[in-house]
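Example 4.3 (complexes with small molecules)
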Amino acid sequence: MKWCVIKNDDWEKIINKVLACDVLVIGSPTYYYDVCGQIKNFIDRTYSLYHDRKLAGRQGVTVAVQAQKGATRTIQTLEGILSTHEFSSLGSVKGNGYHAGDVLSDKEALEKAKKVGNKIGSLVKSCKV
Ligand SMILES: Cc1cc2nc3c(=O)[nH]c(=O)nc-3n(C[C@H](O)[C@H](O)[C@H](O)COP(=O)(O)O)c2cc1C
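Answer. The structure with flavin mononucleotide bound is encoded below.
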């Protein structure tokens, strides 16, 4: 199967954006020490593109937020989709927060996000238009 057989939802719209990108930033909240169900469904459905390595050669960044613990595994799961699909990883960002906006107090995460953002910026600048 070379394209997800499930129709009439947003997957096609989203995967076409992924196919058009040079750098994919993929993130998830940590739910029970791993990615949330919606992201896991999205990841599983990309298997349809794996056989012809349709996503290979892109770059990726992984992002996870946690209230207290579990984001290390969330990042591992997200890095798993990147390595399976032969992306190269530009880095990962782990943030702490329970409510929306809490992560703004996580200085380490903001610093890392800035570094990774700068890497993406320099790649985009070096692209010929
Ligand atoms: C179903 C559920 C499971 C969660 N499991 C964890 C967990 O294992 N570890 C943790 O640190 N936080 C956990 N949290 C807290 C969330 O990771 C945290 O509140 C996050 O900021 C929520 O992001 P969201 O608002 O995008 O859902 C959980 C939250 C929910 C709703």
